[in-house]
Write a structure and sequence with these properties.
mainly alpha
Length: 108
């Protein structure tokens, strides 16, 4: 087993911080009280981009022929898929509300 160097530890921390700062900026934008037309269009693109990111993460994590995860080689569903499932299916989040409303619209 090899040890991680302090420089690599710092690089990992900086990468994580950088990625989280992107999400912080999007979250801040999403909490603005009023959007002009340009900002509303940007919000639509941001939603599309976030869905693309989530899909990109999930797609590689699929079961292989032996029941393991193709990406991380752990039992499927792996921890990543379980975490995404928990967050997307949380009844307190907007994802579920939107799906419920969409279901009601398409059933009628």
């Amino acid at each position: 087993m090899h040890s991680v160097t302090p420089a690599l530890t710092d690089a990992h921390r900086l990468l994580r911080t950088h990625l989280l700062s992107h999400l912080d900026a999007v979250e801040y934008f999403g909490r603005m009280d009023h959007w002009n037309h340009r900002e509303a269009e940007t919000a639509h693109r941001v939603i599309d981009d976030l869905v693309t990111v989530i899909r990109g993460i999930i797609v590689g994590h699929a079961p292989n022929a032996t029941g393991g995860c193709r990406k991380c080689e752990r039992e499927y569903p792996c921890e990543l898929v379980q975490t995404v499932h928990t967050l997307l299916k949380d009844p307190e989040r907007e994802f579920v509300r939107i799906l419920r409303e969409d279901w009601e619209i398409t059933r009628d």
